[in-house]
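Researcher: Please translate sequence to structure tokens.
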Amino acid sequence: MPNRQNKHLMERYAFIGTYLGLLFLVMAGVMLIPLLCLFFVPREAIFAPAFIVPAAILAGLGLLLRYGLRLHKLSSLDFNESSVVVLVTWVAISLGGAIPYILISGMSFSHAVFDSVSGWTTTGLSLLDIPHAPVILLFYRAWTQFIGGAGIAIIMLASLTGVGAQHLYSAEGKGTLIKPNVLASARIVVSLYLGYFLFGTAAYLVLGMNLLDAVVHCFAAISTGGFANYTQSFGYFNSALVEFVTIILMILGNLSFLTGYFIAKGKLKSILRNGELKVLTVSLLIAIPLVFLGVTSGIYSTGSKALRVAVFETISAITTTGFSTVNYNDPTWADSGVFILIVLMLIGGGTCSTAGGIKQYRVYMMYKSVLWHLKKSLMPEQAISRNYIWEGDQKGYVNDSKFRGIGSFVFLYMALYIVGVTIIAFSIDPTTGQPYHLKEAMFEFASSIGTVGLSVGVSTTSAPLLVIWTETIGMLLGRLEFFVVFLAVIKLGKDAIPSRFR
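Model: Translation complete:
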């Protein structure tokens, strides 16, 4: 019996390895795309090995796994097995993605992994010396956000035909299918994504950006990533029109791809009854006036500039994009404004989108659960009601299992947030020799775990390595939404134990 179990286990891991091989081969090609920059800046050809080396490593591993296992037919993976595939792929691409930072900019391993994870998870926090970074590296880091926003599994599914990919799609955090067929859904996601990119790039070019700035900032905006080519982020441009286009792109990136699909199809009724859009709208209607009246109106001499800043910063926070036009370390930026941005970063963006955070869907569900609980308390005991919310153009009936799942996620999210804040708050700020302020710790880890990218100055090259790795792990856990990571680790640990000891 144990031999049969071990044989079955080895067979399942052979399938897992084959899927990993496919993903590694795709990601090897992704790592080579920045070399296209050499057609525009041939003087940077000396940096080509920085991308060829990780691509070769990934391709070698991919070929070994894909063809060395000699599987002629792929089998469906269950959710736990898909979790292993997703986790291993994200760890591998995060480590491989750090190589260009090390070879080009001479960053340390920890700092390079930090920027790599920040890119792939679409966070946007960075330790890179941006003013001295070459064009190819600026393009590369925005490119990682563009790919990470769509999702590594999505890229594979759109370019390869797989068997039983539903669990792989779900493990990537894209649980809501646009079409019954997973491959068709993935292709719609990629089509929408490319449509956003073409619109955004064209708009930026019309407004006077050069090609590099237009492409890089569009990549970062629609992926809700936040990497910019300038240390001042969007404050460098100081343009209301550029900020307006960016706001549109950030909101598009924040929307679930299902909502984006309905917008493209002109299904107005489905859009208006979308719970996530209601949370987004109400949150901004509350946050923008508070930031305007409590913070920006007292800083800027004109009401239009104060309103611009209030609108841009709040939208950047709740969409988890991380662009900014101001410096939050400025003493004139009130703590009340910082607190509002922390709340918005914790709420986060839409489910099945490029955004992070707890997600507007879960917030909406918790709000509805309160209403349903009150309603049930007022009804006769024998009364039966079926609760639902609109999911696209269909009613999604809600049961206790879904509420438990949401409650578990929110509890875990806030528990890990508290752990991260505690670690940072007890760490020593090298610039002052004192522990970081609680405000700084709360803001920075909300930005990390929510994959936002806004900063109050904690994430610097001089920060303690404990802080850097706490934020790095927070970014990865936030992007993969915890359960995928935990399930993968539990499965790997359990399967590593010989069957006679289980």
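Researcher: Any highlights?
Model: The two ends are 13 Å apart (CA to CA).
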